Amino acid sequence: MAEVTLKDVALASGCSIATVSRVLAGTRPVGAETARTVRAAAEALGYRPNHVARALRSRSTGTVGLVLPQITNPFFPFLVRELEHALHAEDRAVLLADCDDDPVTEAARINALLARRVDALLLIPVDERRSREAVAAAAAQVPLVLLDRGCGPGVADSVAVDNAAGMALVLAHLAATGRRRPCFIGAAGTASAAAERRAAYEAGAAALDPGAPGRVALGDFSVEWGRAAVDRLWPSRPDAVVCANDLIAAGALQRLRQLGADVPGEVAVTGFDDIPLAGLADPALTTVRQPLAELAAEAARLLSRNPAAGPPAARRAVRLAPELVVRASSAGPGTRGGGSS
Amino acid sequence: MAEVTLKDVALASGCSIATVSRVLAGTRPVGAETARTVRAAAEALGYRPNHVARALRSRSTGTVGLVLPQITNPFFPFLVRELEHALHAEDRAVLLADCDDDPVTEAARINALLARRVDALLLIPVDERRSREAVAAAAAQVPLVLLDRGCGPGVADSVAVDNAAGMALVLAHLAATGRRRPCFIGAAGTASAAAERRAAYEAGAAALDPGAPGRVALGDFSVEWGRAAVDRLWPSRPDAVVCANDLIAAGALQRLRQLGADVPGEVAVTGFDDIPLAGLADPALTTVRQPLAELAAEAARLLSRNPAAGPPAARRAVRLAPELVVRASSAGPGTRGGGSS
DNA sequence: ATGAAAGCGCTAACAT
DNA sequence: ATGTTAGCGCTTTCAT
C-alpha cells in the first residue's frame, strides 16, 4: 500500500533512478535491454509516477484551467465536453472554475488556478470590459486562449464562431423564404456575441427592409427576456423574429404562441447556437449551429503553440464558420402549421 | 517577473524561511511583531504560494476530482455548479473528467486523476455494475463519494435524492387529482435512479390500479425514448404518463401532442429532476425537484470526514428528500387547456 | 518563538 | 548510454 517511487523501481531493476526516469518519461535514448528490465520492474511493483513531484521539478503541471461564466448556460456543457476530450487526449487535466457570471468571482478563480500552477488557461470571459483587467494579468503569466467571447482587442488569442456570418445565413434564409419585416431580439452590452450578432442583424436587415434595423429590442440571453421582448415587438407585426440565441428564441416562441400567433405561418422565429432545446421546441427552432468540436480543437492547438519562440507572436483571432440548421420555425409563410422536422 | 519564493520573503523580512512558512500557513504560533513584518514583505514582493511544492511536501494537493458520465446531460451542470462552489469555498480546486458514458473511459479518467494525486474523488458512476471495479479500486486509495447514482452495496459513501420518495409524491399527486390509469416510461438497467424509480412506480401504482404495474416501458433516459415509448403505451389509453426523468417526459409530451392527445385534459405527464427544460415545455412539466445545493453540500461534507479516525467507518448512504413541483402538465382532468404556471 | 536542516519524488545538468 | 548530484519550493522535525 505504500507509494512506489522511482527509487524502488531503480532498486528492483538494478539501475539508477535517473535511468528509470528516462525510460518511463521517454526523455532520452536508453538501452533497449535496460528499458525492458526497467519497464518490467515498474509494472511488477505497480509504479505510478507522481505528477506532483514531476510538476515541481519540470515546472509544468500538465494541467489547464477552464474558466467559464456559468456551467448551467446550456451552450457551455458541449463546449466543455469537447475541450475536456481534446485536452485529455494529450494527457492534460482540466481544472474547472465556474464564475457565477460575476467578474469578481472570475478574478478570484483565475488567481486560484494560477496559484495551482496551471500550464495554461482557457477562458470564456464573463464580460467584455469588466473581465479585461484580470484576463490581461493572467495572460501575462501563462498562455491564455479566449473562447466564444472576446475581451477587448489584443488581450489574448481567441477562438470563436463567426457571429456575423451566422447572422447573415439567417437573414439570407429569411429573405429567400419571403420574409420582409424582420425584427431582432438581442442582448445589450458589449460581450462580443451580443454585439456582433446585433451589428450583423442591423447591417443585413437594412437590405431587406429599411425599417428593420429599428425593430430591435435588447435585454439579456434568457428565456424570460425572449418572452418579454415579444410583447414589445409583436405590435409592429414583424413576419420574422430573429433572436440572438436559442434561449431568447424559446421564450419568444412560447410567448408568441400564448398570443395566438401562428409560427411559422404568420411569423418565423430563429435562434442561435443550436442547443438541444432548439430541436425540442415546438415548432422546432431554425438556428445557427456552432462548430463546437472545431472550436475546442482550435483552442487546444492555440494553447500548445510554443510561446517562447521568437518575438511575442501577434495575437490570433480565429473565427470559425457556423452552419444554418433549418427547422420548422421558419418554414415558408405558405406552409401553415409546419411539421416537426 | 521571476517567481517570488518563501526564500525571497525570508530575505526581505530578515527571518528564516521556516518562520515565513509558519506565518503564511498559520501553522504554528508566531510572534505578532514578526508576523506583521513577514506579511508586509510578502505583500510587497507579491508572494504567491506555490501549491505544487506545498502539495509535494504535505502530501495534499487541495484538489478533488469530479468524474461524471456526461457533462451534456442537462441534469449534471447544476450539480457541477453547486459542487464547484462548495469546494472552492474551502479552497479546493476541481479537476473535471467527462466519461462519455463509457465505463472504460471512466476507469482511465479515474486513474488520470489519481496520478495527479487528487485528495478525493466525487464520482457519478456511469453504470451500476460496470463501474464497480474501478470505483472500488479508487475508493481504496482516496476518500470517494458517490453522487446521484449508486455502484453496488458498500463500495463507498453515497449521496443521492430519495428516488422512492419522489416517485411516491408523484403518484400521490396523480391519485389526488383523479388519475386512475397511470403508465410508466422508465430506463432499463441497474443504475440506481432507473431501478429505484421503476420499483417505486410499480409499488405505488398497484394501489391505484392493479393493472398499472403492467403498463411499463423501459428504454433509456432520452427524449427519443420518451417519444418512442408513447407509441407503445398510448394505445392502452392511460390517463397519466409517469416518466423516469424530464428528458423522457419532454419526448413523451411532444409525441402525445403529435398524436392529438390533450395534455393534461386527457392525460397527465410527469417528469423527474426539474431541469430547466421542464419549465419550458408546453404544457410546463410537473416534476420532482432534486435538492441540488443540499446534495452538493452533503457530498462535500462527506469528503471532509477525517478517514483516519478509528476503524474504517461504516459506509454512509445519505438520501435527501425531493420536492414535488406541480405545473400545468398534470392539472386536474377537468381543467382543459391548462395555463402556464 | 525561531532557526537549521532534512527531505517529499522527480528531472535536468553534469559527469563518466 | 548510464550514474551522480543538485535542486524545484515548500513543510516539518529537531534543536535552540
Automatic annotation (TrEMBL), chains A, B:
- What GO molecular functions are on record for this protein? DNA-binding transcription factor activity; transcription cis-regulatory region binding
The record, for SUPFAM superfamilies, names:
lambda repressor-like DNA-binding domains (SSF47413), Periplasmic binding protein-like I (SSF53822)
Quote any Pfam family the record assigns.
Peripla_BP_3
Which InterPro entries has this protein been placed in?
HTH_LacI, LacI/GalR-like_sensor, Lambda_DNA-bd_dom_sf, Peripla_BP_I
Keyword annotations of the record: DNA-binding, Transcription, Transcription regulation
Q: Which PANTHER family match?
A: HTH-TYPE TRANSCRIPTIONAL REGULATOR GALS, LACI-RELATED TRANSCRIPTIONAL REPRESSOR
User: Does the record carry Transcription as a key word?
Assistant: yes
Q: Which domain of life is it from?
A: Bacteria
- DNA-binding is among the record's keywords: yes
Q: What is this protein called?
A: LacI family transcriptional regulator
Q: Boundaries of each HTH lacI-type domain copy? A: 4-58
